[in-house]
Amino acid sequence: MEGMEKRELILQAAARAFGTKGFHDSKVEKIAAEAGVAKGTVYLYFKDKQTLLYEVLHYYRQKYVEDLYAETEKHESARAKLVAYAKFHLAQFPNMIKIHKLNMEQLSQLHKDESSRERMREEQNNNLRKIAGIIQLGIDQGEFRTVDPIDAALLCWGAMQGSVHWAMINEIEEIDDGSAERMVELLMHGFGK
C-alpha cells in the first residue's frame, strides 16, 4: 500500500469516526483498525488527534473543490456553470452536516491555528475566484450585464451559504435540488418589477 493511500485511508476512517462519534469519543486505535493500519502508522502521518481532525477537514474541503470544479467545467455557458456550482454546493449539504457534527469546541480551536486559518482563507478565496471567473465568462459572452465579478461572486456565495446555514439551523437533512435553479434565477434577474 502506497504512503498516500494509507494517509487517505486514515483520513476517511477518521472522518467517519469523527462524524458519528464526535472528536472526544473517537479513538485513534479504532480509526487505525478501520483504515487497516497500525496505530503507530497514524502517528507517522499526523502528530496527534487534533492534527488529524484538521487534516480531515482540509482533505474534504480539497476534495469538494476538485469535484466542484470538475462539475462546472462540464458546461459551456456561464449560467449553466453557475447553476451547476449551486446545485453541487447544495447537494453536498448532507456531507457538510456530518462534518459540522464534529465537536464544535475542536473546530473552534482550528481557527486559533494560524496555518489552518491561512489554508481556510486560501480555500475560500479560491472558491470566490471560481465564481467570479464564471461571472466574468458570462460578461465576456454577453450572458450577463457588466458588473464587478467579485461583488457578484460574494452575492452568489452568500446566497448558497445562507441556504446551507438555514437548513442546518432548521435541521433539514437535504436541500431541494430545484433551489439552485431558483437561486441563480433570482440572482440573475432580481426580484424587482
Automatic annotation (TrEMBL):
The keyword Transport does not apply. Residues 4-64 form the HTH tetR-type domain. Keywords: DNA-binding. Gene3D superfamilies: Homeodomain-like, Tetracycline Repressor, domain 2. Residues 27-46 bind DNA. This is TetR/AcrR family transcriptional regulator. It comes from Tumebacillus amylolyticus.
